[in-house]
Task: structure prediction
Amino acid sequence: MAELSISVTTKAASQIKAQLTKRSGSTPASGVRLGVKGGGCSGMSYVIEYCDQPRAKDKLFEVEGARVYVDPKSLIYLNGTTFDYVDTFQQKGFKFVNPQQKSECGCGESFSV
Amino acid sequence: MSKCWSCAGDRAASDPLCPACGKVQPPGAAPDKFALLGLKRVYDIDLAQVEERYRALSRKLHPDRFARAPPKERRFSLEQTTLLNDAWRTLRDPARRAEHLLELRGVKVATDVTMSPEFLEQTLEDREKLMDAKLSGEPLDALAQGVREKRDAAMAEVRTLLQGEVDPARAADLLAKMRYYARYLDEVEGREAEI
Amino acid sequence: MTALFEIAEPGNGRIKEACQTAAVGIDLGTTNSLVAIVLGDGRPQAVSIDEGSTLLPSVVHYGASGEPGSVIVGRAARRLAAQFPSDTIVSVKRFMGRGSADPETLRLSPYKFASGDSGSVVRFEVARGRKVNPVEVSAEILRALRSRAEERLGIKIQQAVITVPAYFDDAQRQATKEAGRLAGIEVLRLLNEPTAAALAYGLDKKSFGTFAVYDLGGGTFDISILKLVEGVFEVKAVGGDSALGGDDFDRALATLLLGHAARDPRSVRIAIDEAKAGKERLTTEAQTQVLGRTLTRAQLEEVIRPLIERTGPACRRALKDAGLTTNNKLDGVILVGGSTRVPAVRAFVRELFGLEPLADIDPDEVVALGAAVQADLLTSDSPQHDVLLLDVAPLSLGLETMGGLAEKLVQRNTTIPTNATQEFTTFADGQTGMDIHVVQGERELVQDCRSLARFTLGGIPPLPAGLARVAVTFQVDADGILSVTAREQLTGVSQSITVKPSHGLTDDEIERMLLSSIENAEADVQARMLIDNRVEAQRILKATETQLDANGDLLSNQERSTIEAGMADLRARMALTDHHAIKDAIDRLDHDSAEFAKRVMDRGIDRALKGRSVGEFEGEVGAHAAKAYSAHVEQTTLYEDK
Result:
């Protein structure tokens, strides 16, 4: 089967680096972990956490020096996803553009594939 | 220069938002209503442009934008929006705008001016005409027009006055007249609305 | 819409419960109340809450048993109104923020009022001698709206934007907020009804221009002039009459119908109800039978014409305040409120403004829909509509000065939030205190204005008259609620109050209300838990069902029957009122299906690893399976690698 992967935009990458720098306790190996977990009204939710100690089977995506870790199970659901950062007049934050996503709940916090 | 309370970046005292991090700032001590709306301290302003700026700033500063922000930012938003509303109310009115310009120049304009006997007589006459017109039901247009002309003349005089060295007594007299004309016109239009 | 995310510290990455709690818009109306919500597609929608209708009649019946549950709201209460006229409160909104000596209290009505001081708040005497004030009655309506919408939507409602007539004074606004608090709702904002209506219209039509909103409801009349530019809704002027509406039409007609007949609470109630029904029929018919006599539309119009005409001067004044004349530069007139269905009202509006009025959105729902949009704006990370409302103070605010004159500090139609400061001096040598009397209204004399509050600033240093200076500052917030600060300039002695309306609730009354709500708190908590658990039960049942259909082959017969038995048990218990029993059944089903959920998840991953697209097992990892799985592993950790 084809290699599963996600892509990280440069905007997201630079935002990750900026937030890691501001945070106390970050090490050069620190990055963020993207994941999927059960819950929310449409079944699954996205999660973004800081990650100081990657796990053995984590897959690493490095974009412009920003480290993004994804565990193998989550990667199945995130395959093909573009991880972006939005900073407009009205809103600010990270965004998952997931082509597998079939539906979303009203608040957009959770989804199903 | 002032410092942003959040990111400690430099900002002008009149900046309602930090230019670096975008956080809402507490208002300064004696705010300049022109600066708040990004204007130079001049009498002649483009009202349409100022209104557009007022709306753009309202979008950023209004308490509705801070409904979920920490209490401190909510307070700053309330204070800044209060000032912004006050600035727009002041600047769009010619008499208040002139008064604020004088205030910024350090000219204290007295509000309890003794008007000339001629002016007082004139005002009494205007009022009587208004009462008569109201009782007889005749249209108020002509009356209003006369007062409007006097107001425009006073306004032109204020504009000239502001270009040079200001005589506080003269300024106080003119502003009092402008306030009177505005009230009179308000009343005429108010009567029309009641009919 | 897509939600945006923040990076969380490890282990803190929680699933926001955004879906399970929601902010709604509530139109707490004189005749009917509604609740609306903005759903995922961005469209506001009114929720069906009373016998299939989105309208909940604002009627509260206090049953004779006095037991919890004896309070009935809505259509069921309305059906009891004729039989129990004084125990059934209709149109309570008219009494919000009103004193027992207010003219409103003294009008034709079937209620028994509890005696009290002339300045004190109105209290209705209902079944078993129980005395309730308008805030408590309104809180019952809000509770009903909330719990019915929760059951209907399957979500918890904690926050709301509640609408009020633009012309509501400070006392009426405070009373509305108080009712929300008493009902356990966090009131995000009080939104003016016409503004809410414009919001609902403006969004649909991407309108630009200046609009008049003519809002004639059951009990209040509002006129607002708004300017819409690039998503900013700027209220230019408001006016109206907070005691004029369709109820007055009914009452005028009832007075005609009653003639010289004896009047007791029951006959008055019946006459008013019949008048209302007759009025509604005359919207489409030319004549109708009411209480055994024929009534024509012309007769109705003759009776109500003086009432309709009372809306004229307020409209003209609002146009003037907005810098317009009747037909200068107005781009449209929006009709709001059930009473604008009356043909004579439409004709009057058409003539007054010289425009054909707009009424495309249901005039009964439009206010609630706009409120829902505002609630979404205030609570959502990524609101569906980027709009801003700039509202105004409906009435001038001032202070009493020497000689009983009202000195205005904030002029009506000033954009809020706003503040104003005025300095006063002492008038007697050695004066150490100053009485501050806050009033609201347009009249010159204090006695003609509404008294909002009185307080005394003490501790002024004894000085010759005119030397001590007291600065009084008014701050009006975005809800239109006033707080007043008085400060003596020399010593800096200051005193600050949020205005407690003179005709509002006394401290004693507020204490009593809070005590009684604590007494009822246990019952409230039980009711809440019951709703929560029923909602949760519905969700788990649906999710399990879906999984049984799609992946039932993963189970042995015995496993399947265990799960099915658990489901049957839960279904049976949902009808019970014991929330513990429901919760136990949920937990048991959760436990019994955890292994199943795990197998479903593993199957999905297995298939994906075999090169099939995830889309092919759509539905296999449904809501509950995934939830049960993560609950089984650990709620807050990500999937561990194997």
Remarks:
- The longest strand of chain A covers residues 31-38.
- The two ends of chain A are 19 Å apart (CA to CA).
